[in-house]
């Protein structure tokens, strides 16, 4: 009986285990059947602003193609709620232009949003905003439920929703009256009838009488007709906005917040040469000033960033204000509004010459370490020539940009004083420095491209540096003691030094003299204007052989080589010899000093150290070098280049 009882108990236990396992399996099957649907990340457009979305934390998917400067972005790292969500994601590097998913978290408002240019998006500065947000990669936090449908503030009011894009923002006016940004929640407080009155379903068709902004003109012979002031500002302005929509505490450029120090990624000294000729007319002149104000706003002016001065030209040029007069965007815009038209001819060449000689000086706020940029604005065409004065400007280290608006039509080209004046004037003819604008109505489209280019300091090719602003003359000993093999080693040394410089007709130029008892000009500064041509010319120099008259060689180089040096170039002589001179070197060396020639003396093997120190510019320790063997010449290339640059950088920029 006991064994039977145990058998029955065992059977019950097995049955219970089977039922339990079956139940667990069944529950898993049920769980599979009732598994929650996969979370769908809501998609938004490129221009949707964080302030429009009520949710405090959410994930969204941005489409491709948001790397476009028309989407407003304010801040770096922490963004103002008026910023485009996707634009901020691209600017911060979380997304590229192919789009993708991001995590957005609302945070408290910030003071002094700093702007910068990054990843194809120019973010702007802003004194303060009451709500901010941060962007990160789409990695959901544990325990956080993200909405699959976003809640928009405009959903409460159809009229506000229809006009959302038009109510959100208006830039500070050029008149000095600061208009305020408007969030959607504030716009909702406006009665529907009032909102309908202030917005329009055709934002480009507003009457010119609806806004105090300047009225642009199209072609010189066209009447104004109907045109919206907001179409001039493009993406920078929105129709229908009104300063009364926002409490003063929301955003005020008159706040006690610290003034922006400027964008350190755009540290340039910038001169605008504006057209004040009679021909431009009052309306176009106002549009030109508004364009200038928009550029100033986008640049984020400050002591640590870009500084701007303005020169107006007509018959004669005049400085409206220099680089250190106004050191923030707000003051600059107020000063721009006060500029009055001078009238007269359109003497652009005269203006460029004036800027080259007078504007970029320490007294006017030139900082030396910042690239010099001149943006020349021209209505139509100049009434004088620009080629020669622009060459001098470029050689003085000024990066010349041209913005030509409504250039000469085919029938008008007969009146142009200098054909292709723009290409003759700009820093480089690769298109980077030139803007040809078909109509004053479309000038606003040039704001962001111009800002991007003047801030791209790596491409400002005309900035003076130790490597692109000298006339370098090599004086090479070809005496019998050198020998054919060693002479080729010397030429390789000359080539190695030349490679380090930026060579062109407007940058560094290279010339060479070979000497024995006699002297021979191998090639002058104006013979070759590319690095490849220079290196080829050096290889072709033939060994002469003879005595060693170093003093006569220095005098010859001064007369035949450096006499043709350009006035804005630093004159550098690099003399290479392997022995003591048969003639006196003191008087020629003193003549070189008096002519402003900086002399480096390189002695090899049997060269006399005391003679090298006489030839070299003071201090001799920085300008004279001795090498025991020809084969060791190459080791001194970096040190010589370093000394040339150290000396250059210790001197005034212009």
In short:
This protein is of the alpha/beta class.
What features would you highlight for this structure?
single chain, 654 residues, alpha/beta, six-stranded mixed beta sheet, disordered N terminus, ECM_Assembly_Org, signal, Vitrin, repeat, vWFA_dom_sf
Write up what this structure looks like:
The protein is an alpha/beta fold. It is built from 20 helices and 19 strands. It has helices at residues 2-33, 85-92, 158-162, 164-167, 184-187, 192-198, 229-233, 281-299, 329-337, 348-359, 387-395, 421-425, 447-455, 484-499, 531-539, 550-560, 586-594, 609-615, 620-623, 637-649; strands at residues 57-62, 75-76, 78-80, 100-113, 117-118, 121-122, 126-137, 269-275, 307-313, 318-321, 372-379, 398-405, 434-437, 470-477, 509-515, 519-523, 570-577, 597-604, 624-627. A six-stranded mixed sheet has the order 10-9-8-11-12-13, sandwiched between helices. Strand 2 (75-76) and strand 3 form a beta hairpin. Helix 10 (348-359) runs parallel beside helix 11, helix 14 runs antiparallel to helix 15 (531-539) and helix 16 runs parallel beside helix 17 (586-594). The radius of gyration is 35 Å and the shape is globular. 45% of the residues are buried. The model is unreliable at 1-9, 17-21, 28-34 and 155-257 (pLDDT under 50).
